[in-house]
Amino acid sequence: MSDNQTKLEIWKEYLLNQKNSGLSVRTWCSENQISQPQFYYWKRKLSQETSAQPKFAEICFADQQTEKHKGEIGSLFQVSYKGIEIVISSFATVEQITNLLTALRHSC
User: Could you tell me which of 18, 23, 15, 20 has the C-alpha nearest to residue 45?
Assistant: First the structure.
């Protein structure tokens, strides 16, 4: 593990410890002899690193529609929403697509 990775892991642990402590950032930093600007620097840096990484989630619809078209090749269409790309089968029902987009809207 490189020095930079080690620092990242240490600061992830520090941020988690502060969050779980129930203490304010000011109090936690004082008790752990860490400057507040340094704390916020690493919090921002790790937040940016996390948000820059793409996130994927597989969504499966378990109903009769899947069995009905098993083995068939349908067309696909792509939906882009707030920087998120979703590929949807033409076999998806209107209800499934509506539920997917509703869940997406609430999570973003």
Answer: 15
